[in-house]
């Protein structure tokens, strides 16, 4: 029952690169005419990283999906995620593109049809983020100070589809500013505007409501941290991502809401119509296995982590649907393990 509004996957938290480049001129030979030093050509991509990942989440949840399809049962299930990722750094900024294929076990079945022969739902989720650095665009250091290394314009978007009973088809865009904090390692704080459109079967009423939803523009905050743990004897780093979405409304008109409620809209959040603040937190330890065992850094990573997702997809975990019918499903708490291979 996925209506994702906070999308960053396991592979996304690894999309951090720091690049330096040194250019040197060439000296002329003594027995040849003196020539001007030839400048070394700078490649278009300072960093160009392409990778694939696999992650296993043993205790994933999907809001509103009760265990065995029986009201009152909590539910957690295995989720297996394969990812393909591209990350680059060029003269004026960065680009990040990721596509996930997410496969649930039979406790989150296709079309929510619980039976002994059920197969798990499959979701495809793609997203992108790009930045343009103001220092690079202005060819200056005017956006570097004791607080920031740089300030960047950030923009991107998400798209998904899933074959569960909800059948979400989400689209969103984000745009705003990223502040590269003047701290050790990489610490980036993004302040963004977020807009989401969705089509799902949550409240479809034939002839009255098609399932199309357009949510309000809302603020979104992102904090990305990457720190090498140099005090350890192994090549391990800590990666952390936090995303916060503010309430985005119902996505439908008040007239549609009134018609769907049919006079039964009692309580603080009838039918869980109104979204709540959503918090997504992901922390992991990453071992550069190729450096440890082969002496070749940045090829093969192993990682373990923990994900906490509060009011998942903006749902209200206190609403009856998520507190009584499918208790606990609107808050995800799961450890995970995974691996990434970088093509070099």
Q: Could you explain the architecture of this structure?
A:
This protein is globular. The two termini are 38 Å apart. It has helices spanning 134-138, 254-261, 289-294, 320-325; strands at residues 45-60, 77-90, 93-104, 122-133, 148-162, 171-181, 186-199, 212-214, 218-228, 236-245, 278-288, 300-310, 332-343. It is mostly beta strands and 344 residues long. It has a domain at 128-337: Outer membrane phospholipase (ompla), Chain C, CATH 2.40.230. The longest helix has 8 residues, at 254-261. It has a 12-stranded antiparallel beta barrel.
List segments where confidence is low: pLDDT < 50 over at least 5 consecutive residues.
1-36
Q: Mind telling me the C-alpha Rg?
A: 23 Å
Count helical runs: 4
Widest sheet, order of strands: 1-2-3-4-5-6-7-9-10-11-12-13
| SS elements, strand count | 13
Instruction: Return the structural class.
Output: mainly beta
* Highest CATH level, the class of the domain at 128-337: Mainly Beta
Average residue pLDDT: 84
The percentage of residues in β strands lies in: 35-45%
CATH architecture type of the domain at 128-337? Beta Barrel
Termini separation comes to 38 Å
Net shape: globular
- Helix-strand string: EEEEHEEEEEEHEHEHE
* CATH-defined fold name of the domain at 128-337: Outer membrane phospholipase (ompla), Chain C
**Approximate helicity band:** under 10%
């Amino acid at each position: 029952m996925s209506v994702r509004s906070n999308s960053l996957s396991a592979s996304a938290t690894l999309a951090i690169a720091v690049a330096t480049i040194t250019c040197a001129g060439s000296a002329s030979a003594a027995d040849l005419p003196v020539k001007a030093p030839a400048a070394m050509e700078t490649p278009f991509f300072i960093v160009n990283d392409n990778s694939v990942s696999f992650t296993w989440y043993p205790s994933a949840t999907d809001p509103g999906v009760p265990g065995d399809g029986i009201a009152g049962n909590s539910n957690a299930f295995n989720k297996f995620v394969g990812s393909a990722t591209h990350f680059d750094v060029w003269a004026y900024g960065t680009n990040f593109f990721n596509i996930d294929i997410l496969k649930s076990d039979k406790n989150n079945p296709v079309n929510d049809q619980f039976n002994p022969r059920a197969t798990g739902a499959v979701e495809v989720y793609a997203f992108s983020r790009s930045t343009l650095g103001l220092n690079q665009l202005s060819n200056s250091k005017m956006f570097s100070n004791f607080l920031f290394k740089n300030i960047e314009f950030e923009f991107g978007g998400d798209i998904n589809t899933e074959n569960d009973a909800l059948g979400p088809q989400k689209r969103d865009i984000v745009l705003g500013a990223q502040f590269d904090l003047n701290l050790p390692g990489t610490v980036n704080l993004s302040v963004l505007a977020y807009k989401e459109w969705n089509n799902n079967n949550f409240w479809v009423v034939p002839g009255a409501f098609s399932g199309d939803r357009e949510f309000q523009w809302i603020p979104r905050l992102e904090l990305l941290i990457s720190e090498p743990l140099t005090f350890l004897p192994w090549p391990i780093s800590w990666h952390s991502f936090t995303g916060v979405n503010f309430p985005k409304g119902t996505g439908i008109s008040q007239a549609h809401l009134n018609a769907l409620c049919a006079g039964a809209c009692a309580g603080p959040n009838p039918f869980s119509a109104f979204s709540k603040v959503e918090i997504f937190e992901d922390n992991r330890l990453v071992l550069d296995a190729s450096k440890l065992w082969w002496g070749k850094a940045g090829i093969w990573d192993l990682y373990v982590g923990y994900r906490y997702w509060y009011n998942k997809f903006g749902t209200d975990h206190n609403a009856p649907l998520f507190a009584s019918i499918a208790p606990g499903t609107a808050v995800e708490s799961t450890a995970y393990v995974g691996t990434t291979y970088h093509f070099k």
